[in-house]
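During the no-cost extension, the postdoctoral fellow (Dr. R.K.) reprocessed legacy sequence entries with the updated structure-token encoder. One reprocessed record is reproduced below for audit purposes.
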Amino acid sequence: MWYVIYSEDVENSLALRKQTRAAHLERIQLLVDQGRVLVAGPCPAIDSEDPGEAGFTGSLVIAEFSSLEEAQQWADTDPYALAGVYQKVVVKPYKKVLP
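Re-encoded structure tokens follow.
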């Protein structure tokens, strides 16, 4: 089943994001390589593809896991979560309807 993992950053998270970005992306790439990612990416703090020093307010991943517990465990051990980039992470089942 698909699961939404929506994470909200702490304030001024950009420096922490930069320090941990490679490990975070490497981990998501493993899911991509397995064909388990529907979409993934950050939420810019301003209305821009490249928010620069404004940074990001959070991240969204929609990926396939065998259970809610597995999705939650994956989210809890994300490098950004472990580094303190995120202040809140919500994991919910997701049913893709369109397109």
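Residues 14-33 form the longest helix (20 residues). The radius of gyration is 13 Å. The remaining legacy entries will be reprocessed before the final report is submitted.
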